Amino acid sequence: MKCIILAGGSGERLWPISRDLHPKSLLKLYNGKTLIQNVFELALNLATEKNILTVTNIRQLDDTNRQLKELCSKPNIIAEPMSKNTAAAVASAITYLQGQKDEVVIVLPVDFGVKNVDKFVQAINEAKDLAKLGNIVAIGVKPEYSEEGFGYIQAGDKVKKGFKVNKFIEKPKREEVIEILKQDNFYWNTGIYVAKMSVLLQAYKELAPCVNETFEKEMFDENNKIKYEYYAHLPELSIDYALMEKSKNMAFVELQTKWNDYGSWQAIYNSSEKDSKGNVISGNVIADKVKNSFVYSSKELVAVSSIENKIVVETEDAVLVCDKSRASEINTIVKQLKKEKDETTQCRKTVFRPWGFYTCLNGGEGWLSKIITVSPGHKLSLQSHNYRSEHWVVLEGTATVLLEDEVHELEKRQSIDIPLQAKHSLQNHTNEPLKILEVQKGEYISEDDIIRYEDMYGRVK
Q1: How many CB atoms lie within 10 A of CB 165?
Q2: What is the C-alpha separation between 60 and 62, in angstroms, rounded?
Q3: Structure confidence at residue 317 (pLDDT)
C-alpha cells in the first residue's frame, strides 16, 4: 500500500486577498507538529516511509523537505513547477509511482487532523477492502455544523462496511446546506481517497484525458522536479471535479472519529482551547466584552470590544473581519478581487518564489525596498529590467552575483549596484540562507518589469 500526501499549497499559504489570510497559515498544531508533519505521522500508520510520496510546489520544496526530515531520514518528494490543483498533483504522483497497477493507493490532503488514530486506520482498511473490488473510495464524516466550504457525499446502498455514493455536492450554497443537513444520509467529504492504481489511471483516461495525456515518466528531472513544459498548459482542476463527481464506481466509508479540516476558520475555532467566554485569542490582542470569537494578531495590537461570534485576523499585509458562522463566504471577496484584478491582489508583503522569498519593507514614488532571502543552493534567474536599477547589500551569508560577464563574491555588509538593463543574477552557493537588502529605483516599479534569459525553474517564456 502506498500513500500520496498532497502538500502543493499548504506551505505557500497563498490567498489572493493576502498571503496570510487563510487558517492554514496560522496553524501549528497543538501537538507541536506542522500540518505536513501531522499528516506524515498519520501516513506512517498505513505505509512505510519509502512508500509515502509527498507532492509539493517547487516554492515549498526546501521547507517541506526540512519539515519531513525531522520525522524520516530521506523523504520521498516530487515538486510541481506551479500549482494546478489536485487533479494534476495526483496524476503526477501516480505517474511517478508507476509499477504494480493493482496496488492500493491512499490520497491524503495535508490540511486535516483526527482525534482517534485507531479509528482512522480502521476506516482506511475498510476502504481498502472496497477499493480491491474496483471502487474509488472516499472517506466521509457526519456533519457537525453548517459549512459551505466543504464538499458533501450522499450515501446510497450499503456495500460491505461502506456505501455506494449517490451524489457529490461540492461546496454548496448556504441554502443548500440547510436542506442537506435535514437529511441523515449526507456526510462531509474529507478529501481522502483510496483506490487501486489501475482504477485511478483508467478514471483519468476516461474522465480527464486533458490531464492524463500530459503525464509520462520523462516529465521528472534527476531531482524529482516536474519539468515546466509538462504543467504549463494544464487546466486547474480539483480531483473532485475531474474524477469523483463523474465516476460511476464511487463508494465511501464513514470515519467514526472527530475530524478537522484546517482550511476552515470554523474548524480552527472548534479545535482550539477556549477561555471562559468561549474565545480563542492569540497574539497582541486586547479584548473587552468579547464572546465566542476567534481573534488573532501576527504583530500589531488588535483591540476588540463588544463583539460576539466573530473572526478577527491581523497579518502583515491585511486584516480580516467576518461573522464566524459565515467565514467561508470570504470566497466571494476572493472571486471579486480576482475578477477585477484589484491592486490588492498583487501587493503581498511577503512573496514566496522557487528560490526562497522576499518581503517588501517600504516604498514610494519611484522606489521600493525589500529583503530577499535565497535558500541554500538556489539562484534567481538571469534577468534584466528596462525601467529600474537596483542596489544590493548583503545582510547575511555570501552572495554570488553575476553582473553582465563578471562574477562577484560578496560577504556581509558588502554591496553592489545593478544598472538599468544590465543582465544579472543573484546566487547562493553555500549551505546557509542568503539575505540581502534590495533597493529599487526607477520611473516604473513593478514585478512585471523583468526579462528572463536563463532560469533553473523553467520560467523563461
Answers
A1: 26
A2: 6
A3: 67
Which CA distances in Å does 420 have to 69, 281, 346, 403, 441?
42, 48, 24, 12, 9
Residues constituting the chain: 461
Provide the CB-side half-sphere exposure for 461 (13 A, CA): 4
Task: Grade residue 67 by pLDDT with cuts at 50, 70 and 90.
Answer: confident
CA-to-CA distance for 106 and 104, rounded, in angstroms?
7
> Residue type for 431, please?
N
> Buried b / exposed e across 191-230, counting CB within 10 Å, b at 16+?
bbbbbbbebbbbbbeebbeebbebbeeebbeeeebbebeb
Grid cell digits, residue 268:
480552527
Which residue is listed with cell 526579462? 451
Q: What is the mean pLDDT of residues 316-330?
A: 77
> If you ran DSSP here, which 8-state letter would residue 39 be given?
H
Cβ(206)–Cβ(181) under 8 Å?
Answer: no
Q: Which residue has the higher pLDDT, 59 or 417?
A: 417
| Pairing status of strand 112-114 against strand 259-261 | antiparallel
Sequence-distant (6+) residues with CB within 8 A of 461 are: 452
C-alpha cell at position 193: 481517497
Using DSSP's 3-state secondary structure scheme, residue 20 falls into coil
How many other C-beta atoms lie within 10 A of the C-beta of residue 358? 21
Say how far apart CA 345 and CA 186 lie, in whole Å. Answer: 36
Mean pLDDT over 97-117 rounds to 87
Question: Which distant-in-sequence residues (6+ apart) come within 8 Å of 163 by Cβ?
Answer: 155, 156, 157, 251, 252, 253, 254
Residues 6 or more apart whose CB falls under 8 angstroms from that of 82 comprise 57, 58, 228, 231, 232
Question: Helix, strand or coil for residue 73?
Answer: coil
* Cα–Cα dist 241/85, whole Å: 11
For range 418-427, the mean pLDDT: 97
Average pLDDT for the chain: 86
Read off the DSSP letter of residue 273.
Answer: -
What are 16's three cell numbers? 489572493
How far apart (Å, rounded) are the C-alpha atoms in residues 382 and 457?
Answer: 11
For residue 180, how many C-alpha atoms fall within 13 Å in the half-sphere facing its CB? 27
**Cα–Cα distance, 407 to 369 (Å, whole number):** 24
> What's this model's pTM, rounded to 2 decimal places?
0.75
Exposed/middle/buried for residue 374 (C-beta within 10 Å: 0-12, 13-18, 19+): buried
Report helix, strand or coil for 392.
strand
Q: How far apart are CA 145 and CA 180, in angstroms?
A: 11
What are the tens digits of pLDDT across the range 394-414? 999 999 999 999 999 999 999
Helix (H, G, I), strand (E, B) or coil at 289: strand
